[in-house]
Amino acid sequence: MEKVRHSCGCTKKYRLYGPAHSVRRQIEHREAMPCPKCKRAAEEAVFIATCEESALANTEMGLPELTGTAAQVAYAESIRRDGVRDALRMVNSDQEQDVIDTLSKATAAKWWLDNKELMFGAWTAKAKADFTA
Prior knowledge:
Layout: E1 2-5, E2 11-14, H1 20-31, H2 36-60, H3 70-89, H4 96-104, H5 109-114, H6 122-131
Helix pairs in contact: 2-3
């Protein structure tokens, strides 16, 4: 068992295999990186900041609040921000409000999560198909 001190300051033991030069290289590689726990925490912090930034941008565009669990809403906000931006790039400036009005009808976070793979103008067409009576 080799003890490794990660760049974040955490120490962790690893079972490393191979010749001495290979083990040394593995240790050096791990020392240059944060430990898995700190890396995950940093990624979560970035994700949360992105979701909060997306929610603010969506509110500024006049989009209604999403419904769903807290986790669904947080993730769906960033999907919706990107979807609205993509849809707005595909239309003229005089059609922008129509696009925003159409996409405003999708207030369930689940809808955005289920349709996250859509590209560009498909967002508006899908919303029209799902929410027009």
